[in-house]
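Closing statement on the zinc ion sub-project.
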Amino acid sequence: MDAGGGRSAVVLDTTAFHPVDTAWPDQPADRGVLRAGATSVEVVDAVVAATQGDGLLLGPDVPVRTGTEGWTFVVAHLVDGTPFAVGDEVSVEVDAEHRAALSAGHTACHLASLALDAALADAWSKPVPTDALGAPAFDSLAIQSSRIVPDGSRDVYRIGKSLRRKGFDPGALDDPAAVAARADALLAEWIATEAPVRVEAPGETLAARRSWVCALPGAEARIPCGGTHVSSLRELRSATVALAVESVEGGLELVMTTTAVRA
Ligand SMILES: [Zn+2]
């Protein structure tokens, strides 16, 4: 299908390619190539595409969340030109090193969110929803954006009036280095367990609601997630966070930069 800008969107019956999701674009698309016979083309982007039966909408043009009933979701591999014809047998080759770096970054991101919640557990004066390990869910209550990068992630949190009303004391972030040190200690403890990590999916389709599952000390952590991950914490040597707090209108912005080192 013509994707505009001299590009076409290639849709296959099945693919190993991880696309970027439109509604929650945390993990970027895989890199790699598509091959058919002697033709080999680089995939310049991979997005979620959706159809209700007639016509395919791409990426930001999809008006519904991935998984919405009545829609079919597929991966659109964007390539320059029109290298393939309908019916061609195409093989997919994913850049394994790039994927491994994103998977390490994504697992570290989940661990860091849980470690941050735990490190800020004493900052709450009222009961609030809890995270997968039972700590007040700072991450899910305050998150603005989350971006996975190779071997790391960048999460942005907003501490405004609504979080304060829920009982969060912004004074808990007066010493971000101390909070980061508490989170880092937990991350080191968890990674030392070499716990297995798995992605549970109720089905094979792109729309299936997947969960990241990791047996951490004390509880099995389970987080809804459509990304890719390492298969064991043994694949990580370390994960550490850096926290930066800035005053913004109406409150504070906290940026957590997570760095993973693969074993
Ligand atoms: Zn995730």
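The chain has two domains: 2-94, 97-262. With this model delivered, the sub-project is considered complete and its resources will be redirected to Aim 3.
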